[in-house]
Structures are given as C-alpha cells and as structure tokens.
C-alpha cells in the first residue's frame, strides 16, 4: 500500500475500520425535510479500502459499508457499518486483506509455500464465491439484501446493519455471476439476471417468487425463465444491469467481455477479475429483446455503436417500438481502467474530478419492420425522438441503431426513476456526475429534452439520488 497514493485520494476513500458509527447519531439538518418523509434510507457501497498494511487496488473492490439514514418528524439519524461478510471477517481477523475482488487478489498468507503450489491452485477461481456484497441494497418483501455481482446475497438486519443470513442462488441455479440491480415487479416478485461461463447459456433471466413471511429467505422457487447464448465462444459480455418492459426483457451484449480461458486460469495465474476482461474492438453493442412469456429472443438483432453501459435508466414499449434509455460511456475498457485507485490518485484534479464521462443515450428499436424497407431508411416512426434504426442489407434481421442524445446534457450516471414507472413510458430521471467537473445532481426531463442541475457544495460529492414519491402524488415527479 502506498501512503502517498492514498494521500492524494479523497477522505471517503481513506476511511478506517474505526471510522464507522454503528449506533445511530443525530445529524445537523439544513433546510427543511418534508414531514411526510418517515422511514429509513439504506445505502451500500465500497467504503473500506485499507486493512493493516494492505489496500485494495480498484474503486469497486472496497469492503461494503452500509449506511442508514432514518427520517422522523424532520429529524435525521445516521449510522454506518462495515458489512460483516465472510470476506471481511477473515481479513479483519488477520489484520490484512485476504480474498479476491474485482481489481485485486490477496492470497491467504497462512497457506504454506507447498499448499500454494499444490494441485488445488489449478482449480479455477470462483468469482461466484465473492461475498463482499458492496454494490447495492435491495428491499425484497420485508427483507433487505446487500448485493454484488456474484450470486451470493447477504440478508441484512435493518436495525444493526449486520448480516442475518447468507443466501446462495447457486443452490437453485447454475450461475457464475449475477447482478446487483434486479427488478422488483408490482406483484412483489423479483426478476434477477445471471451470467453462466458456458457461452451456449451465457445470459439468464431468473424469476424469484415472493418469499413467505414466516420462513427464512431461501429463494425457493427461483427459476431461469429465459436463456440466450453469447455471440462469442470464448467471451461473454459484462452485464451490470438490464431492462424490463411489460412484455420483454432487454439485455445488452456489450463489447466489454470476460474472456473465459482467462477466467478459468485466474487461480493459477493469480490474476484479478478485471484482468480477465477484454474489449472486442470495433464490435457493436447488441441489444437483445426477449419475450417474457416464451423466453425466446425476438428475431431481430439490434446493433448499436461500440460503447459501454453500467446502468439502464428505463425501458418501455410504445407503438410497436421499444425505447431503451441508458447512461452511455464511449469505451468500456477505459471506464474500468480509470477506476483503479492509482489512476484516480494521479488523475484527480484538486476537486477530485476526472475526465470520465457518461451521457444520456436513447435507443429506439422497432419491433417489426416491412420486408420491403429500404436500406438506410429510418424505421423509427415515433414522433418524439431523433434516434434512428436502419437496415444495411435487405433480407437480414440486423437493425443498426444510432441513439438520441440531449444537447449540452450534463454528465450523468447512477440513474434513478420514480420506480412506479419502471418499464412504462416515463418522463423524468435523476442522476449524478460524482467524479466530473461541477459535481452535480441532475433531473432530466425527457419531454422537454433538458436537464436541471444542482451543484454540490465544495468538497462534497453527490451520491446516487433516490426518488421518493409524496403520498397521494399523481404527478410522476411529485416527490
Ligand atoms: Fe450499479
């Protein structure tokens, strides 16, 4: 660990184990909190990067820190806690990081030289065993789950923020990676996504029914409802989030991929998950539209320009089209590389900002088109978008997309919507530009095609905005 590197990083990347407040403390409120806001806001994220003499390498690696903000009668209490995952407990006990993360690998020093070189190291590492669930916190039924991109979930006790139970979806399903951004449907069930390293069954959509209140959350009844193959035999797209509409799942097969042979050799080569990623240069982002009732892909493959997406904003159906909005980065590999801590330490400006930038992009996919359609004729007939879809060869089911963007749009990621509008035609979303100049929170109006921005105070970094509807609200943005 380089002290010098951490000295160049902001305070929130320098937190120690002892900096967390497990008992709620009162906060100082500026402004006025509406009296109808009553309850707890939970957050999750990488928050602890150093233990003893060791430190994680990548922004995505840090041990999960849970935060809880409790609102009542205009007052707010705050508490935070390092999640007591098995990965963290092992490291805390030995006062050094032990384990694997996205951009780092720390073997157990207690293994003997002999055992480190013995046969078991030839067994492939298993990313599905990572239980540092640091990416998101999801309410499912009356339970809270800390989630990451492995199919291991930690159920968390709402008051103490401690792990109540570890749930492995691999008990029921053959999956190697998962998502921290499942969708919760209006009936309370969950749609989850998981990746399998066999290219024939690479991308999987999973339906998880509501869990009985009295039982433990074992995720009984979880089943794969749609599986589609990878277009590459040796590479599988990295998937962080996905979309859902009334009748379809939307999957993005993007050119940032996991190289399967490299993943299988991780244990032997001592490489991290990030080092197994490869960008398929000059290849398209393919958008798959999967019928929720049949589990089958629609016959058209939609091809968007090379780029990268962490977060879907929303998707919906409109007049025989699917509209898919995302926060779009021009390059996947760069996005990952620019999040190593040493890169950030060397490239942060004085205000801890970088040139890293995602922007709003709207892709519009016609669900059907006339066989006689002319090459390069725009197949999108929605009147309110400049997004286009064209065929380049007659008789082929490949449709090439160019997205609509918003002129002078602020940089934006970590998007949130009024979730009542998930999968439906909507107008507003909210996001942040945490690492870029200006450090703003933004509210986008997709009818007016403009964004309202709120500058963060100096030395503060805006987090993911969460939309909370006012009780009785009838307008989408009343909250
Ligand atoms: Fe995310």
From TrEMBL:
One of the protein's GO biological processes: carotene catabolic process
Protein name (record): Beta,beta-carotene 15,15'-monooxygenase
Family that this chain belongs to: Belongs to the carotenoid oxygenase family.
Any Pfam family hit: RPE65
Keywords recorded for this protein, A-Z: Iron, Metal-binding, Oxidoreductase
Organism of origin: Plakobranchus ocellatus
Positions bound to Fe cation: 181, 240, 311
Cofactor note: Binds 1 Fe(2+) ion per subunit.
Cofactor or coenzyme needed: Fe(2+)
Higher taxonomy: Eukaryota, Metazoa, Spiralia, Lophotrochozoa, Mollusca
PANTHER family from the UniProt entry: BETA-CAROTENE DIOXYGENASE (PTHR10543), CAROTENOID ISOMEROOXYGENASE (PTHR10543:SF24)
KW Transport (keyword) present: no
GO molecular function annotation: beta-carotene 15,15'-dioxygenase activity; carotenoid dioxygenase activity; metal ion binding
